[in-house]
Structure formats: C-alpha cells, structure tokens
Amino acid sequence: MESPAKFISQVRAEVGKIAWPTRREVITTTIMVLVMASLASVFFFLVDLGIKTGLARLLGFVGG
Predict the structure, then answer these.
(1) What's the structural domain count of the chain?
(2) Would you give the end-to-end CA distance of the chain in angstroms?
(3) Chain centre to alpha carbon of residue 62
(4) Would you give per-residue pLDDT tens digits along the chain (64 residues)?
(5) 4, exposed or middle or buried, with CB in 10 Å at 0-12, 13-18, 19+?
(6) What pLDDT is attached to residue 32?
(7) CA 40, 58, 63: angle at the middle one, nearest 5?
(8) Residue 12 lies in a domain
(9) Residues near 21 by Cβ (< 8 Å), separated by ≥ 6?
(10) Alpha-carbon Rg of the chain, whole angstroms?
(11) Does residue 34 lie within any of the structural domains?
(12) Its pTM surpasses 0.70
C-alpha cells in the first residue's frame, strides 16, 4: 500500500492534466442545456396533452 503523501502527489499530478472549461464554455453549455430542457418539456407537454385529448374523445365516444 502506498503512503498518503505519494497518493496526494499523484492526485495533484492527475488534476494538473485536466482541461478545465473556460467561463464562456460553461455559460454557453449551461444556456444550451436550459434551452434543450425547455424544448423537451414543451414537447412532452404537447404529447401528453394530445394523448389526454385523444383518450377523452375516445372514451366519450365509446361510453356515451
């Protein structure tokens, strides 16, 4: 088993290899995620509304 000091030095070496995103990249990808999540929520809302309306009409036609 390695010593804790060696482990920490290896962790620091690995962290140094990480390509951290720029502030602009973080803001851009955050905006893209928010837009895509909004579009997906609108899409699924419309699909749900269509299924609900279709089932209501079908059941109204069959039941009444």
Answers:
(1) 1
(2) 76
(3) 40
(4) 679 999 999 999 999 999 999 999 999 999 999 999 999 999 999 999 999 999 999 999 887 6
(5) exposed
(6) 98
(7) 140
(8) no
(9) 29
(10) 26
(11) yes
(12) no
C-alpha span between 43 and 25 (Å, rounded): 27
Residue 54 resides in a domain = yes
Task: Provide the domain limits for residue 42.
Answer: 21-63
Q: Is 1 helix (H, G, I), strand (E, B) or coil?
A: coil
Place of tokens 């990808």: 29
List all residues 6 or more positions away from 29 whose beta carbon is below 8 Å from its beta carbon.
21
7: left (phi over 0), alpha (psi -120 to 50) or beta: alpha
Identify residue 19 by its one-letter amino acid code. Answer: A
Phi, psi of 43 (to 5 degrees): -60, -50
11, 16, 18, 19 alpha-carbon torsion, rounded to 10°? 170
In a domain, 39, yes or no: yes
